Amino acid sequence: MSLAIDAPAAAGPGTDRRVQARRLTVVLAALLAGMSVFSLAWGASGTSLWGALGDLAAGRELSRLDRIILFDIRLPRLVLGVLVGAALAVSGALLQGLFRNPLADPAIVGVSAGAGLAAMAAIVLGTALPAAVQQAAGSYLVSIAAFFGSWIAILVLYRISTRGGRTSVATMLLAGIAISALANAGTGMITFMADDSQLRDLTFWNMGSLAGATWAKVFAAAPVIWLALLAAPFLARGLNGLALGEAAAGHTGIPVQRVKNTAILTVAAATGAAVAVSGGIGFVGIVVPHLLRLATGPDHHSLLPNAGLLGASLLLAADMISRVAVAPAELPIGIITAVLGAPFFLWILLRRFGSMGI
Amino acid sequence: MQAYDIRVTLGRRAILKGVDFEARPGEVTAIAGPNGSGKTTLLRAMTGEVPFSGRVLLNGHDTAAMKPWQLAAIRAVQPQSAAIAFPFTVLEIVRLGLRAGLAAADSDLPLRALAQVDLAGFAHRFYQDLSGGEQQRVQLARVMVQVWEPVRDGVPRWLILDEPVASLDIGHQFTVMDLARSYAARGGGVVAVMHDLNLTAMFADRITLVHAGRVAADGVPAEVLTHDTLAQVYGCPVPVNRVPPAGVPYLLPQARAV
Ligand SMILES: Nc1ncnc2c1ncn2[C@@H]1O[C@H](COP(=O)(O)OP(=O)(O)OP(=O)(O)O)[C@@H](O)[C@H]1O
Ligand SMILES: [Mg+2]
Asked: Closest to B87 (Cβ–Cβ): which among A100, A242, A298?
């Protein structure tokens, strides 16, 4: 594969990429901390984090406005951005390991579309459910629906594109197009059935946005995404083994079927929860793991945690761009990630195409 | 390692029609036979990669009842060809074997295994950039690391190799076959699919000759590699001679009767 060409400098004789990857983890954690502070400090209103901190240090009460802006607007948005960015990047890395190629991304292969369709269906048709069910599911109804939507999409995708343990990249991409088209048709139908207030809720799915961040959304997504992020590292050994091929992975003692099922469930949970609260934000899952593989190699032990950290930072950066690009209005963040990510995707595709076909 | 009455049907074709096979620890057992005779299929059945009927015993235990990690601890399998997803380095590939065989994660086994297959200095190169023969030796290093000690806790371990010398030059054919011999000499079991009958005669203790999904002959090389058997199985009569001291048979393709 041509992807290796850039990297020899990073893996010259005598260097161990495991050490580099651990160093990178520290750097990325620092980057995320910096980005978080930056994103708290920065916004359309005049509220300044430093001013507020100064007030607190001096023992003064914060003004009501400052408090609302910092704690009820910027902080939930920050937390949501971190969760969603990490979820999407880790989902991308897991999907790529599962399908054994670097072009799998939840948004490109229709997994996000499946989650979006199910989430919209829950919003619009959820009111028709028996009251008891609504009561029990509560604010999680949309997240739960999104989980099942993405789960079904991945299962279908995997069935179609993987035969006898081998994935055809072309089939995977084409099947992804078909699944997206089908889900989008369903989405269109539901939009048609929605009333005006629901319509407002729905519009942001088409673009993907963090603008509606509230603590309620954070609490709906956080447990699921945390669970998925915690589960991901346990798949590292299995996914490394899968790179050898399914049969060879089995011979090294990996319970292949269990690894695959767990990976699929984890991606479904992370993507579902992310899509439920932020819509279809694309390309994070492809850009982040790819850059990390170029830097420190494809070992999933470091790739997965580093992807979570870099994905979170990247989404915070994109969110800041979305807030200032057309200020005082806001650009949906999905547009930013697509503008940056789509050419990147094409670049990977062309390089693979040049060297080995799809 | 024993296999009884192995039958494999792929699609609607019967590929293996009742094969019995035995390999003993301390020996190199070769599986030979024409293209398409079912050698790879036999290995894949015995390693559980394809559905089959029959029984496979490894150190006396039925493999069907063993977990992947239990099998991985006593048996490593080298595939006939191996493309790898993602740009892993040679060392990273060999380390995958290390984790499988329950050896200490930070030992220097991978580097020693690479040196044994004559790839010292290749550790940090990208697997995908290597030549076919080099990739094959990396895979051998990986499976050797997985079952490094031929005997562990008194239990013999197994190397299962599908055409381990297929794309190697003559020097490295010897390197690899010497490794297989030494593994067997130290008490481990080696099962290898082979095409080069001269090399097989030199290095194998026993040969199982497969023909059209059945065992055509098995035994020590001198019994199996006879003019009549080869003529019948390969359809080309080649004279078989013997090198004086050990009586190892050798074939002289130039003397083929046309
Ligand atoms: N998946 C499959 N479906 C149908 N037939 C198959 C399949 N795999 C192998 N075969 C057939 O089974 C027969 C035996 O194949 P196998 O790969 O075992 O041969 P082999 O002895 O290893 O040959 P070679 O020397 O070329 O490696 C061949 O005729 C092959 O066409
Ligand atoms: Mg074969």
From this structure: A298
Reduced to 3 states, what is the DSSP secondary structure of residue B28? strand
> How many domains in chain A?
1
Q: What is the structure's pLDDT at B103?
A: 56
Torsion sign across C-alpha atoms A145, A148, A152, A157: positive
Mean pLDDT for the stretch of residues A181-198: 86
The B-side interface with A (CB below 8 A) comprises 44, 47-49, 67-69, 71-73, 75-77, 79, 82-89, 92-93, 96-97, 99-100, 121, 123-124, 126, 128-129, 146
Would you say residue A43 lies in a domain? no
Distance CA A338, CA A285 (A): 11
CATH classification at residue A215 = 1.10.3470.10
Residue nearest to atom 9 of ligand 1 (CA): B41
Residue A214: Cβ within 10 Å count:
14
User: What letter represents residue B23's amino acid?
Assistant: A
Tell me which residue has tokens 């296999």: B3
> A206, A214, A234, A216: which is closest to A107 by C-alpha?
A206
Residue A48 falls within a domain, yes or no?
no
A69 in a structural domain: yes
If one counts every other C-beta atom within 10 angstroms of the C-beta of residue A185, the result is 11
pTM of the shown model: 0.89
Supply A334's token pair: 């999905």
Whether chain B has a CB inside 8 Å of the CB on A332: the answer is no
Residue nearest atom 13 in ligand 1 by C-alpha distance: B36
Q: What is the DSSP string of B179-236?
A: HHHHHHHTT-EEEEE---HHHHHHH-SEEEEEETTEEEEEESHHHHS-HHHHHHHHSS
How close does chain B come to A44, measured CA to CA in Å? 43
Tens of pLDDT along chain B (258 residues) come to 999 999 999 888 999 999 999 999 999 999 999 999 999 999 999 999 999 999 999 999 999 999 999 999 999 999 876 788 889 999 999 999 886 655 555 578 999 999 999 999 999 999 999 999 999 999 999 999 999 999 999 999 999 999 999 889 999 999 999 999 999 999 999 999 999 999 999 999 999 999 999 999 999 999 999 989 999 999 888 888 877 666 778 887 777 766
- Nearest CB to A237 within list B88, B93, B99: B99
Give the ipTM of the model, two decimals please. 0.91
> Residue A62 region, left (φ>0) first, then alpha (ψ -120 to 50), else beta?
beta
Can you give the residue range of the structural domain that contains A32? Answer: 23-36+63-355
CA of B77 to the centre of ligand 1 (A): 18
Whether A276 maps to a domain, the answer reads yes
Angle at B78 between CA B174 and CA A353, to 5 degrees: 105
Contacts of B49 (CB under 8 A, 6+ apart): A247, A250
* B134-166 core/surface letters (b: 16 or more CB in 10 A; e: else): bbbbbbbbbbbbbbbebebeeebbbbbbbbbbb
CATH number of this structure's domain B2-239, picked from the four choices 3.40.50.300, 2.120.10.10, 3.30.43.10, 3.30.460.80: 3.40.50.300
Q: Compute the mean pLDDT over every residue in chain A, rounded to the nearest whole number.
A: 85
> Which atom from ligand 1 is nearest to the alpha carbon of B34?
25
* Residue A210: closest CA among A358, A95, A316: A316
